[in-house]
Every structure is written in structure tokens, then in C-alpha cells.
Amino acid sequence: MSESTRRITQVARHEYRAALRSRVLVILIAILVASTIGSVLIGASDYAAQLADYNTYRAAAEAQGLTRIAPSPLAVLALLRGALEYIEILGAIIAITLGYLSVSRERVNRTLPLMRSRPLTGAELATGSYLGALGIFATLIVATALVGVVSLGLIGHDWISPIQVLRVTLACLAALLYLSAFYCLGAIATARAKVPVNGLTIALGIWLVVVLVLPQIGDTLDADNQLPGGLFQALGLDHDGELAVLTHFTGYERVRTGIEEASLAKHFERFAFAMTDVKERYRPYGLSWLLNETRNNIAWLLAYAAVLFAALRRTLSRQQPIETGGNS
Amino acid sequence: MGLVPTPSIARTHVMNEPAIELRGLQHRYDTDLVLRGVDLRIEHGEVFGFLGHNGAGKTTAMNILTTLITPTAGTAAVCGYDVVTERSEVTRRIGYLPADVRMYGHMSALENLEFLAKLSGLPDARAAAMEALEFLGCADLAKRRVGTFSTGMRQRIGIAQAIVHRPHVLLLDEPTSGLDPMGVRQLRNTITQLNAELGMTVFMNTHLLSEVSKVCTTIGVLNHGELIYNDSIENTTLRFPDESSLEDIYVRVGGPTP
């Protein structure tokens, strides 16, 4: 192991332990885990009842000697939808808070000069902190996924297959990328702000726009994805009518699509929902088809994570370890 | 258990070059020029007292030597290594005690030291941390959380973190600030011990003239970013035989009354 790798590992461990010692963060994580587990448990018990109904129907059909028996309409992985949505919203807040704490802790404690007066570079500090945060997210996601999968088996009476385990794992990896991007956002905003808490406010403002406002705009005005109360539904237009109207608004449609495409949350949601059978249209297809279909979302998630990590390294490398201009 | 200066660093190169060398060092914060072309050479084994009133530029000079800020112009070198272009070499050879040292309050003294020792690349960081605490006579603080420490205790742990990797040059920024008379005396003894027993060169920012006369071998006086005086304590006393104290000499050479 090179000296640089050793220093990075040390910072990562330090970051991981410090994060677990933060009361605010632990409370936020506890809320996320409790909400997720609650949602999966409720879904699993409901699922058990539906599965029992289907099995009764199937047994009756077989007893009557029917050859054409309807396949189960149930999708066990879809019960993880709540968990994914909590990660999308609450998880992003946790990631931003962790990014804020990671930078502000060193600034407020004034420990940054002690670290930076050693051979540790800004890039190593950024990488170590990032890896420490990934460790926290991985722990959180794996714990949540395990509880979810075990609940589906024990309460929903449907143990998932190895290929489904792989699909859940891929969704978890996407969650890791998604959260890491928000961690970087929180850390960058805090490092650049004169007063650390202002950085947190800015990052949360961006989160609000990216996770809630932009996807909502997309959903409300998308002809293919009409929510109750959406514009076209309110106008009483059918799908063909909607498309006909939109041919007169190509510029608008381009902007709307662009907004949706720019939304990190949308990319995570599309990929994770495809992996977990939340979207019905994806259910008939195998994993390789799904991966091909969602490659665009994977690319966007990777690009966001990579660009924000590069920005974090750059920001922390250029950051002055001390507040200058005071006592000279 | 005794501490010894690390032999692993290329000592030949180190000893052939001055411990610290500043050449035409300048630094500017926006429009404010706080260091105005400082030239200074400090040899190995010296205890150098850097004197000056608040805002004279002492901390800026120290921040440059610790590689925390980059000078606007001129050069600074530690053991022959440039603080800007050879940062990694410099940081291996310096130990730094900031004014009002803070550490991770939720961690014990030993954990703090171990973490910083690992960042310095020490293979057995825990043992090195324990040795540093024992050397300073504060091994009893090892397991206690730093957040519960008094200023004096924090200062001792601060020095322990500065020497844990056996640096060649120890940079102390206002080390006596906030200490009671007993703490000041203890610190003075520690500095003397570090210099005499471990051979560390000490560069100390201070405006406490009483400390300088008791500990330092050389002094420099900085006034509004300019080095207006630099000589050994011995020569200084000879040059100003009529002055009864270092404070009088300080006023005489042009520094304002501290």
C-alpha cells in the first residue's frame, strides 16, 4: 500500500467513525431506516395476503383441471418502492448533511491546519472523506436492503431468487452513486461558503429543486406520465390529443425533457424502479434487456457522481486550511 | 521510553541546509501587504523567538512555513526544501502547534495523536503517540477525551501531536497564550528539553519577551511585515549593554511596546 493510499484509508476511517458519532446524523439515519422498514413490513404483510389469495386461486384452478392458469400479477421486489423513495428523498438529505458535517467539523474544530501541516494533500483529504461517506452509505443501504429482503421472505412468504438478489444489489449500487453525488454537493457548498451553515442551506435548496421541483414539473406536464391533476388530464384530453397539442409546443417539450434529463433523482428512480419491478412495463423483461434499456440512466448517474467528486477534490485541494485575513 | 529524532529522513541533506531560510518573503491579503520581503536564516539546533506586535506578520510567516498558505512572492525553505514546490518533504520535517490548538474533542488524547501520526506516515503510530505522551509526562491523559481538557492540558497534547513524528523543526505559534504561570514555566522546560534532548530546532512566535530571554538562542523582530532586527541573544545583550531587559532592547530596535 502506498503512503498516499494509507493516508486516504486513515482519513476514510476517521470520517466513518466521526459520522457515526454525530447525533444529528444518527437521528436522520434512524428515521430513514425506521420509515423504510415500516413501509416494507406493511407492504410485506399485505403481499402475504395477496399471495395467499393467488395460491388459493391457483390450487382451485389446478383442482378443476384447468390448463390455462393466469400467472401471478404480484411483483415482490416492487414492495421495495417505499424504501427507494425514502432513499431518494430522506437519503439525499442525510448525504447532504454528512457532506456539510464532514467539512464544517474540521473548520469549526480548527483541526484542518493540523491535518494539512502533515503530508496529507487536499485531494487525499477529499478522497478519504468521500470513501468514508461511501462506507456510511453502504452500511445504511445494505442494512436497509437486508431488512427489506428478509421481511419479504419472513412476512411476505416469498423469498427472492438469486437473480432478484442481483437486481436489488444493482439498485443498491445506484443508490450509492446517487447518495455520493449529494454528499459531494453538501461538502462542496460548505467548503465554498464563508459560513459553513450557509453551504448547508444552499445545498438543501439545490436538493429541493433537483429532487422535488424538477421531477414534479416533468411528471405534471408529461403526456406519457399523467398524474391526477396533471395539465392534460385537467383539459380532458386523451393520449393522442395530448401528443397532437404538444406538436405545437416542441420548444417547450424540449425544455421539459431537458429538465427531466438533468434530474439526478429521475435517473436514480428510473433505474432503481426498473430493477425492482416497480414499473409494470418493465416486468416481463430479463436483466440484460433492462440494463440495456436503462443504460442512459446509468450513464447519467455515473457522470453526476464523477463530476461532483472531481469538483469536490478540486474544491478541497484549493481550500485554504486556515481562515486568512485575520490576525496576521 | 525516550524519543529520538527520526533517522529515516535524509539527514545529510537536512543538516547541510539551514533549518529555515526565508528569501524576500512577501505575502499579501487582498491589498494588505503583511510581509514585505523578509530575509531570514535559522541554523539547526537554534531556538528562535520571532517577536512582533499583533498584526506584524508573524502568524502569516508561520502559516507559510507550515505550507498552509502560499507566499505571494519570495521563497521559504525548511531543511532546504521549498515550502511550495516540495510541500511533502517539508511537512515530514515540521511539527506545528497552532495558537489556540484544537483537536477532536470526542476522541481521547491517544486517538488524536495516533490519527495524526498515521497521517505523518508512522508505521507504529500508537507506540509513537504513547512515547510522545510519556516524553511530555502526560501519559495519564492518554485515555481521556480531549474535549474535557483544560487549556494547559490541551497545550501539552498539542505539543505531543507536534512532536509525535519526530520533526526536525518545531513551529510554535504563540505557545504560551492562555496558559497560567505554572503552564508557562512547564512549556518553557519542555521547549528546552525538546531542543537539548531531541535536537529539534524551534521557531516560536511570541510577544512574551520574558519567555524569549529565558528560552531562545536567537531572536528576530518583525514590525509591519519587515524584519527589523535579527541576532543571537548573546550578541543582543552585548550590543545593548545599557538596556536592562529584552523589553527595553525591543523598544530600542524599533518594535512598539508589546
From TrEMBL, chain A:
Gene Ontology CC: plasma membrane
GO molecular function: ABC-type transporter activity
One Pfam family named in its UniProt record: ABC2_membrane_2
Keyword set includes Transmembrane helix: yes
Stretches that traverse the bilayer: 24-44, 86-104, 125-153, 165-185, 197-217, 298-316
Top-level lineage group: Bacteria
Keywords: Membrane, Transmembrane, Transmembrane helix
Coiled-coil blocks: none
This protein's name: ABC-2 type transport system permease protein
Organism this protein belongs to: Nocardioides szechwanensis
TrEMBL record, chain B:
Ranges in a coiled coil: none
Superkingdom of this protein's organism: Bacteria
Keywords recorded for this protein, A-Z: ATP-binding, Nucleotide-binding, Transport
Domain ABC transporter: residue ranges: 20-249
Record PROSITE patterns: ABC_TRANSPORTER_2 (PS50893)
Pfam family, one: ABC_tran
Molecular function via GO: ATP binding; ATP hydrolysis activity
Protein biosynthesis found in the keyword field: no
InterPro entries reported for this sequence: AAA+_ATPase, ABC_transporter-like_ATP-bd, P-loop_NTPase
Family in the record: Belongs to the ABC transporter superfamily.
Stated name of the protein: ABC-2 type transport system ATP-binding protein
Native species: Nocardioides szechwanensis
